[in-house]
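As a representative case, we now present a protein record of this kind.
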Amino acid sequence: MKQVTNKDVAIIILNWNAYDDTFECLKSLEHLTYPYFHVFLVDNASQDGSFDKLQQDYNDGKFHLPITFIQTGANLGFAGGNNVAIREAHKQGYQYFWLLNNDTVVDPNALTPLVETLEKDKQVGIVGSKIYYYGTNKIWFAGGKVNTWTGTTKHIGIKEEDVGQYDEVKEVDYITGCSLCFRREVLETVGYMCEDYFLYYEETDWNVRSSNRGWKIIYQPSSVIYHKVSSSSGGERKSMPPYIAYYDVRNSFAMTRKVQKKCSHIRVSIALLSMIWNVIKKNIKIILLNEDKKILRGKLILKGFIDGINMRMGKLGE
């Protein structure tokens, strides 16, 4: 094991039944201009053989970059899987960590400005990229906003063609876990991502907690990556399995309750009413138009609402 220096970045990628996406993501990392990094590829107990195949590819010399392979042995969710690799990298002494979705492709210069942002200002705890829909010039993420009255979140610039309108470095409310770079001290002052969410909103919760501890959250447009989400759907989950709707609804309510924990009853009531309206708007079309499993989807949305209100968290069915 090589000696870890202050310049080294632990790149953490979570795989779950997605060989093709993870392979392309890893290949794109070979072209990074920033030379000081090590990849931690963590697998959430994939059932399609993808993890074994990726390891074999590495042994066969198909990847020209350093990779540590970690098998969790169970599906621990987004936060749980990433936290396993973060703990290992932290133990090895890494100062910087870059969470990267496995369904992304990175620009060769994506990592350099992230590290430079952290090095320039020691109060910056988290920094993230400008993210495009894969293969387009259409923005998916240019920083995130959290409405503290309603607990709702929003991607700045989503679906907009990029004409330079989001080319300014700025402080934002949150950075998506799709491309999130942070310094070691955030772990030591804020802790790890909350694993109770299992899927969705865990990194938003973590951003809010980091901001509350005084860390700056920065959007860095010079770092560019491409994300394989449907440009036409805008991330509205139209073609995703019903269980996705459950986590989306439940965790949005749960995070709203956490954000509003110290607020007045009136403000909490406003937040919850707003969340109910947003859930109806987001999901009514899906239920009405998506004939496949729409009854199951509707039941899971209702269950997500009830569980979120009552803070029943963790993996669905456990």
About this structure: The CA atoms of residues 65 and 105 lie 15 Å apart. DSSP finds nine helices and twelve strands in the chain. The radius of gyration is 19 Å.
